[in-house]
Design brief:
CATH class of chain B: Alpha Beta
Largest sheet of chain B: 8 strands, mixed
Number of helices of chain A: 9
Helix content of chain A: 25-40%
Number of strands of chain A: 11
Shape of chain B: globular
Number of domains of chain B: 1
Radius of gyration of chain A: 24 Å
Structural class of chain B: alpha/beta
Largest sheet of chain A: 8 strands, antiparallel, barrel
CATH architecture of chain B: 3-Layer(aba) Sandwich
Distance between the termini of chain B: 34 Å
Helix content of chain B: 25-40%
Oligomer: heterodimer
Structural class of chain A: alpha+beta
Distance between the termini of chain A: 66 Å
Shape of chain A: globular
Strand content of chain B: 5-15%
CATH topology of chain B: Alkaline Phosphatase, subunit A
Order of helices and strands of chain B: HHEEEHHEEEHHHHEHHEEEEEH
CATH superfamily of chain B: Alkaline Phosphatase, subunit A
Number of helices of chain B: 11
Number of domains of chain A: 1
Radius of gyration of chain B: 23 Å
């Protein structure tokens, strides 16, 4: 009896287990409609690998910002004109150059970094991913990793960039996956990037984005942002092919701007509720820099001890791709962004849907 | 009685005489103001209930602001240690939330707007609804010369958390001297003066107003709906003016605690913390006298703006900048300079409460007949957080409220305190707030059953 009882019980458990797995699979696939599932971006941070006391990556400390540099440059600024002090610094900010300045710039010195191996090679200058993957290309991290404004959880760039995603619409980017048979494994899916026009669906706090929202596509002003590319899903991770050039709308402190990423690609863990992972590629250096200073005045940069003048020199020095055909100088710098997305239903106008 | 007589200064007597008309004889006017137990005026009129607000900028350092203990006799962590002397007169509210729902979290804006209006603003220029003081003033502010009064310690006329609507901010008094002149200059009728002479200029204005109203009513008949609505808004303003004229043409009820202060010196502009404190105390003293003289029953005091630019001598960053630039000290667990600014704000809150508590009225104090609602714009300003935003109240609202308590809101809407305040002031409302900030739940723990 006892044996039989155990037998029934085991069978019941197996049946229940099978049902639960089936439900889980069904739930995971349940938001796929017409072989399509879409996600809207909710979080976007520059990938900065941080240890608790920063001793690993920034053993010499953090870089000075505009205030600290100003005090060192002009100890007697009261006796100097505005033109020779503040305006001179502002001019350098807006017309930067690669000439060395008097300040030592602290680059990241650690070996670990988030990101992807963009060039398929492993070289001495590459980082290692915390999971052991070699050849990680992320020179933006090398430049900004020892600037407190780019570090979480309270660096000024860290806070405001992400806050702007929740608060604004100009930067409402999303991806639509079509020809999807499974979120677990699919040899080929088509991905289209759009800009949405609607606010995100959040809980009552306004901070947590919920899955299941709706977004209309911005076909008018956002048409130039549309990109179509392919990818594959392996064990629940989406790997996309490189996109020659991706324009990413960016907003910070109510100022709209863009970033341009070359050979950009996503690597995202997919679920029915959302996606998370990394967006990596080569950022156009000038666009990267002017996004920063257009969005942030010297006042805001000071909040994060970000000396734009010094950072520009570092970005140029560390740029590692897309050389200018005439000068041979690299125009782009490898980078990675941490991305989180929430599942969303994309609504196309009837005429576009027909197309 | 002796005290009251002593307050009758020579200057006040002469001022009454210089107003002209039938003056001169100083009747013994102050010996019959109150009933035997000091809870009402001799004619049975109860001592009026007042509503006040107070505001400070940029929230708190939670680890040294929020007491460990809730209820009575709560501990006072170092950032609010200055409250020790007034703890018995106030309540502290923590772990109450401001909900933004589908509106953005507008830095230094969403927090105070929700707590004052019950509605999350959708843009920085958006001031939805009306503020709580306006709603309350409509209910209890009609019997006084000023429906409400606002003053700021920042010296900046733009600093106000009081508005009738998006385009109608109640500008605060920003200069002690101007505030004094407004209160006790032209149009002031001393409630304790032995005689009363209607101001002939007011009578002329009232006549002119009546004529204008007559003309406007004729005009109204020939207008479309939209214009009629505009005219109605205009009439509302006129009616308010008419009411004020009526009040000025009637002898005010005597007020025991009312004493006309000496004209203050004006202060230089600036936001250095000591200067702000001095300005705050001068404004507070004037405001209290305005309330005691029954010039208003609704009063707003603004210590610092949401983007508080208060400065500390020897430190290069003003308060707001410090909240963002100063790192959290890993050993202390908070931002020391930022906390310095918050402590200064709390010192001024303590001064404000103490000043109201020290002001005798009837058998109690002015504070006993008031309910003061104090709010800020953020909880942790460095991150622009609005969850767990702290609030205070002070006063017992005529014995209706228990004080000396620390209330944990358990994540419920901060609007509950504003709702409670409105109910205490007699507003007949079932709910207050919008979307997730909507509440119909008073904070029962503070109410005297």
């Amino acid at each position: 009896m006892a044996f039989c009882g155990v037998g029934r019980s085991t069978s019941g458990a197996l049946l229940l287990g099978s049902l639960l797995i089936a439900f889980a699979v069904q739930a995971d696939e349940s938001r796929i409609r017409n072989r399509t599932i879409s996600y809207v971006m909710t979080d976007l941070f520059w990938s900065v690998y941080q240890t608790e006391d920063a001793q690993n990556e920034c053993p010499r400390g953090f870089n000075d910002g505009p205030r600290e540099q100003f005090e060192k440059l002009f100890p007697d600024y009261d006796s100097l004109s505005i033109e020779k002090t503040q305006l001179a610094q502002e001019i350098q900010t807006w017309h930067p150059n690669t000439e060395p300045d008097d300040f030592e710039f602290f680059e990241v010195e650690g070996e670990l970094s988030w990101g992807l191996n963009l060039d398929g090679q492993v070289s001495a200058n590459d980082f290692t991913h915390p999971d052991g993957t070699l050849g990680i290309d992320n020179e933006v991290y090398r430049a900004v990793g020892c600037i407190i404004g780019f570090r979480g959880p309270d660096g000024v760039e860290h806070i405001f960039q992400n806050k702007a995603i929740l608060d604004e619409v100009f930067n409402r980017m999303m991806i639509e996956l079509t020809e999807v048979d499974s979120l677990k494994n699919d040899e080929s899916v088509v991905i289209t990037m759009y800009r949405g026009k609607d606010r995100l669906l959040t809980d009552a706090t306004g901070q947590k984005v919920m899955a299941g929202g709706t977004q209309r596509v911005d076909y008018r002003w956002g048409e130039s942002l549309i990109r179509r590319f392919t990818g594959q899903i392996v064990d629940g991770v989406l790997f996309t092919e490189p996109i020659a050039e991706m324009v990413m709308p960016w907003q910070n402190l109510s100022v709209p701007s863009v970033h341009v990423f070359k050979d950009a690609r996503f690597q995202l863990n997919l679920s029915s509720e959302g996606a998370s992972g990394v967006l990596a590629g080569y950022a156009d250096v000038d666009t990267w820099y002017y996004q920063l200073i257009r969005n942030d005045s010297t006042h805001h940069l000071s909040n994060g001890q970000i000396s734009a003048i010094s950072l520009y020199k570092a970005l140029r020095r560390l740029a590692d791709s897309h050389p200018d055909p005439e000068t041979g100088n690299n125009t782009a710098i490898s980078t990675a962004l941490d991305v989180r997305m929430a599942q969303v239903y994309i609504v196309h106008p009837d005429i576009k849907a027909a197309e | 009685m002796k005290k009251l007589v002593q307050r009758l200064s020579r200057r006040r007597f002469l001022k009454g005489a210089l107003k002209g008309g039938a003056v001169s004889i100083g009747l013994p006017l102050l010996n019959v103001f109150l009933n035997d137990n000091g809870t009402a005026y001799a004619n049975g009129t109860p001592i009026p209930l007042r509503f006040g607000t107070w505001s400070w900028g940029l929230g708190m350092s939670e680890s040294i602001f929020v007491p460990k203990k809730t209820g009575a006799n709560f501990d006072l962590p170092e950032e609010i240690a200055a409250l020790a002397k007034v703890q018995e007169h106030l309540n502290l509210y923590t772990n109450f939330h401001v909900f933004q729902d589908d509106a953005p979290n507008l830095c230094h804006h969403s927090g105070w707007v929700v707590l004052r209006s019950g509605i999350a603003p959708t843009a920085r220029a958006n001031l939805p609804g009306e503020t709580i003081d306006v709603s309350i003033a409509r209910h209890i502010g009609n019997a006084t010369r000023f429906k409400s009064l606002s003053a700021t310690a920042t010296g900046d006329v733009r600093d106000s958390f009081s508005y009738e609507g998006g385009n109608s901010v109640n500008t605060p008094e920003w200069s002690p001297l101007r505030f004094y002149q407004r209160l006790f200059g032209e149009g002031f009728q001393d409630p304790n003066a032995s005689t009363f002479t209607p101001d002939p200029k007011v009578m002329v204005r009232q006549s002119a107003l009546s004529a204008v109203q007559e003309e406007a009513r004729k005009l109204e008949k020939s207008l479309g709906a939209e214009d009629r609505a505009r005219l109605d808004q205009y009439f509302t303003g006129l009616r308010d003016l008419e009411r004020r004229f009526d009040l000025q043409l009637s002898k005010p009820d005597p007020r025991e605690a009312c004493v006309v202060l000496e004209e203050p010196m004006d202060l230089p502009t600036g936001l250095e913390a000591d200067l702000v404190a001095t300005r705050h105390r001068m404004m507070t003293d004037l405001m209290i006298m305005a309330v005691a003289c029954d010039q208003t029953r609704v009063f707003n005091m603004f210590y610092a703006s949401a983007f508080s630019a208060t400065t500390q001598p020897g430190y290069d960053k003003p308060h707001h900048t410090a909240t963002h630039e100063e790192a959290v000290n890993p050993e202390l667990g908070y931002q020391p300079y930022t906390s310095w600014f918050t402590r200064r704000a709390i010192e001024e809150w303590a001064y404000y409460v103490q000043a109201l508590a020290d002001f005798k009225e009837g058998d109690g104090s002015l504070l006993d007949n008031s309910f003061v609602y104090a709010t800020t714009d953020q909880s942790f300003a460095k991150l622009h957080a609005i969850d767990g935003i702290p609030m205070f109240s002070a006063g017992t609202a005529g014995g209706r409220v228990k004080t000396g308590l620390h209330i944990d809101g358990g994540g419920s809407p901060g609007c509950r305190l504003g709702f409670t305040a409105q109910k205490l002031m007699g507003l007949e409302i079932d709910t207050w707030g919008d979307k997730s900030n909507t509440t119909s739940s008073e904070i029962g723990d503070i109410l005297v059953s």
